[in-house]
């Protein structure tokens, strides 16, 4: 009996010593677990405040939203050619007209029995592939003045001021039709405020007055004459005629598609002779082609003839007037020819002795 009691006391003593140890050992782990669950519960209880945003106009919204947009370069070469005169346009290729046919079609729609606008303007829409030599680069927007052989009323006020020295140059500019011609005295009038440059749309200068003209660089800004814009040169008469009667156009890239550019320019009126209109179109396309990047593929992708108020647009073939693809061989020949012109000529005596 005593042995049984002693064994029970030992067992009770052992249990009393083990339980505190066990609790002491497990308390840190359980406390850490409870701490983690408490933090998670606190985070769940935090209310997310949603900021209410008022109406935002479409042109002020975030432009980084990726919206799938249709490719503006129209390629219908995979479509079939229509076999008759009655067909659904979207399932077939665009018909390609000659310039004479397109002008005649527009004249019929502007007949007195229809729109009754016989002298409506004839506009040219030129679509461009603005990709540069590298895939990640694109041609910058450009603005040019194309010289045309046949003048027409473009409906713009073009006042031209010419800076030059010398009696011969001044007389040449006045005979060509410049609005105002002068030299150093003209520069003084502008700096003193007696004459406003804003009254004149174009500024042309001769190189002989360039040193004095630098004083007006801050006032002119982008209008300052330079060879790239063809406003600085020795042939004043040609420049004045070009800016007074030429076609002013600008190539603008699409906001969302950087490799697509568009030019809209007027080449004349419907009551002009067809041959004159075609020559104006040729000169305009050749001037646009001078901005072509040095890469393979097309630069001018599509050309459409329009004549408001009609919404009809007729496709013509621009590659009758300009090359379709960039030719490396012709570019190399032109570059070599330019180098030969810039190289100094050898003395005739030395060539004869050799």
Automatic annotation (TrEMBL):
Residues 332-343 have a biased composition (Basic and acidic residues). It holds the Pfam family Ribosomal_L1. Keywords: Mitochondrion, Ribonucleoprotein, Ribosomal protein. GO terms for molecular function: RNA binding; structural constituent of ribosome. InterPro entries: Ribosomal_uL1-like, Ribosomal_uL1/biogenesis, Ribosomal_uL1_3-a/b-sand, Ribosomal_uL1_mit. SUPFAM superfamilies: Ribosomal protein L1. It is found in: Mitochondrion. Residues 332-354 are annotated as: Disordered. GO terms for cellular component: large ribosomal subunit; mitochondrion. Its main location: mitochondrion. GO terms for biological process: translation. Gene3D superfamilies: 3.30.190.20, 3.40.50.790. Belongs to the universal ribosomal protein uL1 family. This is Large ribosomal subunit protein uL1m.
